[in-house]
Amino acid sequence: MKDEKESAFDVDLDARKLACPLPILRTQRALSQMISGQVLRIVATDKEAPKDFAAFCRQTGNELLRVSEHDGEHTFFLRRR
Fold first, then answer.
1. CA 81 – CA 4 distance, rounded (Å)
2. What's the average model confidence in pLDDT over 19-43?
3. 20, 39, 65, 67: which is the annotated catalytic residue?
4. What is the pTM of this model?
5. Which of its termini does the chain have fewer beta carbons within 10 Å around, N or C?
6. Which residues make Cβ contacts (< 8 Å) with residue 11, sequence separation at least 6?
7. Coil vs helix vs strand at 25
8. pLDDT digits (tens, 9 = 90+) for 37-62
9. What pLDDT score was predicted for residue 22?
10. Considering Cα of 34, then 43, then 5, then 51, what sign does the dihedral take?
11. pLDDT grade, residue 19 (50/70/90)?
12. What is the phi/psi pair of residue 49, to 5°?
């Protein structure tokens, strides 16, 4: 049985140590393989990632559900449009 953390997303993307624009490009690729309503979790270390993901969601219509930061790692939860 999945715990609550595992069931909060459908697909996991590790974008740590990738510089812009790679986290966004990998996110686009992952979202293109998902169905509407599924949730993607992305972990990124790029310091500009919060700004980049906010803009990406505004431009694409995907929903930015949550953003958190811990020890230089940003975690994003996006719902596919």
1. 23
2. 97
3. 20
4. 0.89
5. N
6. 30, 33, 34, 38, 39, 40, 41
7. helix
8. 999 999 999 999 999 999 999 999 99
9. 97
10. negative
11. very high
12. -55, -45
57 flagged as catalytic = no
Give the strand pairing for 11-15 and 39-44. Answer: parallel
CA 3 to chain centre: 20
DSSP code, position 63 = E
**CA–CA gap between residue 28 and residue 80 (Å, rounded):** 10
Burial 40-63, CB ≥16 within 10 A → b, else e: bbbbbebeebbebbeebbeeeebe
Q: How far apart are CA 26 and CA 23, in angstroms?
A: 5
CA 54 → CA 6, 34, 59, distances in Å?
23, 20, 9
